[in-house]
Amino acid sequence: MPSSNPPAPSSAQLEEVKDAVRALLHQPEYDDGSAGPVLVRLAWHSAGTYDAASKTGGSNGAGMRYEKEGGDPANAGLAHARAFLEPVKEKFPWITYADLWCLAAVVAVKEMGGPEVQWQGGRTDFTDDSKVPPRGRLPDAAQGSDHLRHIFYRMGFNDQEIVALSGAHNLGRCHGDRSGFEGKWVNQPTRFSNQYYRLLLQNDWKKKKLANGLEQFVYVDEEIELEEGEEPEELMMLPTDMSLLSDAAFRPWVERYAKDKDLFFAHFAAVFGKLLELGLVRDASGNIVNEENVEGGYQSAPKKSDTADTPRDQGKGQIGHEAAPLQKENEKFQKRKDGARL
């Protein structure tokens, strides 16, 4: 007897979603003019909860919709990314949040000049928070190489993959009101490149203590020619970034990626694709056969309500309940519909 469970979307359906994501990337008043970097971070944090030993966590389920995961301090600021994607979810209500968050990141990487990341859909949305992983599985940027290995080995990555995934820091910036750190890693944080590795190696990074007590590393090019009234631009690196230089196994990969952009792009595409697949079990046809997917099929959660629906849903004031206030806030970032594309 054929299954009555909803099927995963077709390639044609997903192409429409990709087009919608491309259309929202240009956000002239948000950060450095693009929603792309924060969309990449959303997918990264959604998938990076995976634990290979217990086979829990990962991108399946879109657990960040619930306060149990969305309220993890490591996810601060990702409410903006989720809100940017709400119009896409409203236009295509059949797609799961779990698929949408991952697909949006893949599109963003490519549109910002990065590699093509192989991606498959089929993720379902959890109907409650009972399978949401515990907090504390995401990296702490204030730590060093031992911490990085503890976090990434738990997911099943090796040293080379750790360094390649760190290349996501070619994109975006840190915010004091989110991570506690402040600034951007590279000069052009909306263009995917290997500049992160080159700057790590060539600049003389100085330790700087922030007002909140955190320490980061900064570099200011004092010799660059500035226009009248301009201030020298400060770039920053996190303690975890600097550990890639001091660690004997990590550093050779930093050096290789700094010299060979094509190698970095190939390795990043492979490891980012692997990250987004963590926790998923597929059959020979590519269908996800995790228990929740087999039992419920392709379960797409409805667009987030502006009010809490159940005691387990996010309530007003909680970090995860972003749909109403952030949707209004982000509308101002969409003024120039015909502006330049990334």
TrEMBL record:
Region called Disordered, residue ranges: 120-140, 293-342
PROSITE patterns per UniProt: PEROXIDASE_2, PEROXIDASE_4
EC number annotated for this UniProt entry: 1.11.1.-
One record GO biological process: cellular response to oxidative stress
Residues covered by the Plant heme peroxidase family profile domain: 15-288
Assigned keywords, A-Z: Heme, Iron, Metal-binding, Oxidoreductase, Peroxidase
Pfam family, one: peroxidase
Biased composition (Basic and acidic residues): 303-315, 328-342
Cited InterPro entries: Ccp1-like (IPR044831), Haem_peroxidase (IPR002016), Haem_peroxidase_sf (IPR010255), Peroxidase_I (IPR002207), Peroxidases_AS (IPR019794)
Highest taxon in the source lineage: Eukaryota
Membrane-spanning residues: none
Catalytic EC class: oxidoreductase
GO MF annotation terms: heme binding; metal ion binding; peroxidase activity
Reported function: Destroys radicals which are normally produced within the cells and which are toxic to biological systems.
Family: Belongs to the peroxidase family. Cytochrome c peroxidase subfamily.
Entry protein name: Peroxidase
The species this protein was found in: Pestalotiopsis fici (strain W106-1 / CGMCC3.15140)
